[in-house]
Amino acid sequence: QENLYVHRQEGTREEKKRATKELLSTITDPSVIVMADWLKIRGTLKSWTKLWCVLKPGVLLIYKTHKNGQWVGTVLLNACELIERPSKKDGFCFKLFHPLEQSIWAVKGPKGEAVGSITQPLPSSHLIFRAASESDGRCWMDALELALKCSSLLKRTMIREGKEDMSTVATGGEHSINFYSLLRAHNIHGFQFNDSDHLKDPDLYSDKSDREGEQDHEESDPEGLEKSEESDSDTSERQDDSYIDLDPNEHLRETPYLEQSHEELGEAGEAAQTETVSEENKSLIWTLLKQVRPGMDLSKVVLPTFILEPRSFLDKLSDYYYHADFLSEAAIEENAYNRMKKVVKWYISGFYKKPKGLKKPYNPIIGETYRCMWLHQKTNSKTFYIAEQVSHHPPVSAFYVSNRKDGFCLSGSILAKSKFYGNSLSAILDGEARLTFLNRGEDYVMNMPYAHCKGILYGTMTLELGGQITIACEKTGYSAQLEFKLKPFLGSSDSVNQVSGKIKLGKEVLATLEGHWDSEIFINDKKTGTVDTFWNPTPDLRQSRLTRCTVPPEEQGDLESERLWQHVTRAINNKDQTEATNEKFLLEEVQRKSARERKAKCEEWIPALFEQDPVTGEWHYRYADTRPWDPLNDLIQFEKDGCIQTKVRHRTPMVTVPKRKHKSDKPKSPESGCSSPEPDRQDSSGSERESFTPSTHKYTQQLNNVSVLRSRAAGRTEGGSFLQQRDYVIIVFLILLQVVINFVFK
């Protein structure tokens, strides 16, 4: 029975091997055509051109005529994704695109052509097709999906360098050789393909069965055998989901995080956004208002500490990610319209967390950083948040958010400006954020509303949100517009915190939104006419917020927000406004002194974690990794010293935003098995170096002097005298001089 079982197993393996070879011979045969027909293609000038399209396994050939005589271009399907594109016109539209916006075109034609036939310019990273009818379009999409799977299968087979014999391919003719060479030249390492389950049968691509079939050849070439085994071993590791996890004896060097112990949530409505100012504080406001005039920018005005919220503005910006699980859901949502709705829902979810009363966070000091993370229980992932104050005048805060496992990242910068209007003032957040879904290559660009405070001179001080914001995705054509409305002069309590908006595809309005951003918002679908609850921060939803984790103070650097402002925060919590003002003055004085020294030396501040694009002016995170998550290779995402990294099984080329190099940049020596580059302050052993840049090093030294100034001030207060030895000598000298003068004139 055992022999019969083994015989059946070998027969099954041989049958699978035979079927695999037949399938591969079919998809590599240049004479195989999956589908061919006329399609309209939209060019870069937004006009349509009718071209003859021939679909083969792995490639889409485009000609001007159906006789295949005038070649226009070849699209390599192994790097493409396919989506349906809604259209108002007749026919059916679909889109082929590269998720990372790289070129989808081959460099040569099927017969070695270097230059294609002249036609209107076509986009490099995507193509939009229009079929004559919906049935034709659906047929094309089914055929393309089949071709995409075939290209993934072909790519996986071709990766195995030790088993590929180009002499065998040569028997298929010149066309086949060109086809292979094109796929080889455009094989994008590090980009993973989502093969279907039936292509992941371990026996179907068993390296063992292949070696058995080629045993005679390997024995005659021992050197080739070693190379083949190395190549096969590497390939099997990449394709086996059960590959071993991290070595339990290997310690992952990452920043320790602790769950946030306390969190303040304001109540819904106007009550949590109003505050009655005491008579003592009113006198301080009047003193402050004497320094300003209507329309003046308040960025250089020192504000009293009683209106400060005891945390930094960099910390305040992290409030938008307590519901980052909405972005995790949006990343896997197949429908583009539903994806936009989830993005809008996440955007609105960042506003209902508000401090009680009218409070303003600290203005960050240049070089100040903040980091935290959220735990996703459902997906067993982490969302990391990194922020840095990259400029003080003007005050610019840059931030970066990443969760590669769930498929999204977000980056942006905010220029904070304040305007005084007499009895009111506005805090304007100028800038934009860019949300990216890594697996789709979609960018959602959005801006921020402004905060409006009224009742400064008379009436009750009230804080509201106002302004129009836009969330737009250029790739899908969907956009959302939201308007945060201020309370009218004669408005009731129901008119507080109102928001309205609409979701559009091009210029067509698909749905409208209406409600209150801190309570319930309703959505009205224009096609169906149904009205549903879009957003409502109920107690259950607040309870399901993601858990935020912060870095313990003892693990923080001197320029991290919580540690930097710890004395000011302690004084505010103790309601000691005098002490808070003194501590705040010490920090600001160090910043002003550092600015004067840099100006005298004609030096510019170099941020530690972000760098500015010299062309667009945008701020980019130095260690951004925008590769889609590869479950076969990526193990865990972690953060160390402000650098977000990924622990991997095998190194793969990075996909990052363009960076401008500085003279202070040093060669990276990353930790073994980490795909993201280590920051300059950490070597391969994980030990910290002194600083990121000379600017931060000098600034840290000056901040250390703050403790000296603080101790001196404390010593003077305890001693009850502000006179030094030199002062006593001068006083004695003046007294003696006065005595001599009196004696002479007497």
UniProtKB/TrEMBL annotation:
Query: Which SMART domains does the protein's record reference?
Result: PH
Q: Which Pfam families match?
A: Oxysterol_BP, PH
What's a single GO CC term here?
endoplasmic reticulum membrane
Gene Ontology molecular function: cholesterol binding
Where found, per UniProt? Endoplasmic reticulum membrane
List compositional bias (Basic residues) regions by residue number. Answer: 649-665
**Disordered: annotated segments:** 199-250, 649-697
Q: Where is it chiefly localized?
A: endoplasmic reticulum
Which keywords has UniProt assigned to this entry?
Endoplasmic reticulum, Lipid transport, Lipid-binding, Membrane, Phosphoprotein, Transmembrane, Transmembrane helix, Transport
Family assignment from sequence similarity: Belongs to the OSBP family.
Q: Which PANTHER family match?
A: OXYSTEROL-BINDING PROTEIN-RELATED, OXYSTEROL-BINDING PROTEIN-RELATED PROTEIN 8
Its recorded name reads: Oxysterol-binding protein
Q: From which source organism is this entry?
A: Sparus aurata (Gilthead sea bream)
